[in-house]
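Render this sequence as a predicted structure.
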Amino acid sequence: MTDDQPSAEPTALYRLYDADGNLLYVGITNNPKVRFGNHGRSKPWWPEVELKQIVWLDSLQEAEEAERLAIASEGPRHNISNNALKIAGLKRSGKRVSYKDIANDLRAAILDGQFAPGSRLPGINQLRREYSAAGSTVRQAFASLKTENLISSRKGAGMFVRDLDGNRTILIAVDQPQQAAELLANYMSPSDLRTLAEALALKVKP
């Protein structure tokens, strides 16, 4: 199976409204309770939500299409209109991209909250087209993000964002200090990085 083959997993399409009936957000999930908990922790507009409307659809693909149409036609206040636009670096003006470029773009979008926990990333075929890259390059980017525990795969369905609040552990190759520094810089605050640098300096013998 490939990342773009259909999934028969039932998926919920949800709409969030404020007290005046204005549509705030449209999304999809296979676990509304977990998704709404994540929204509550990460979305500054969450206190505005007064009404949640949930419709279950037969498959992930059906839900994704319904979500796309709803966002395009109903104009929810806080949505980004489509997955391709969520990734900051997609338009690279003919520059040949590496797997690190793709992984960096996806990582930034995930950590920025543009891909919520549990949401499906664009498939290999879509990313190949957007980046003009080989499928093997996209797969390597996915493998890198899986190593960082940012995403996980579901057989026949694709790649999905993991719950970052549930597990912030990342794997670091001890023989690649530059890569280790880059990964830690992506996840740790400046103050924590300074504390780490001071601790490491004490461990290094003159």
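Summary. The two ends are 54 Å apart (CA to CA). The chain has two domains: 1-79, 82-171.
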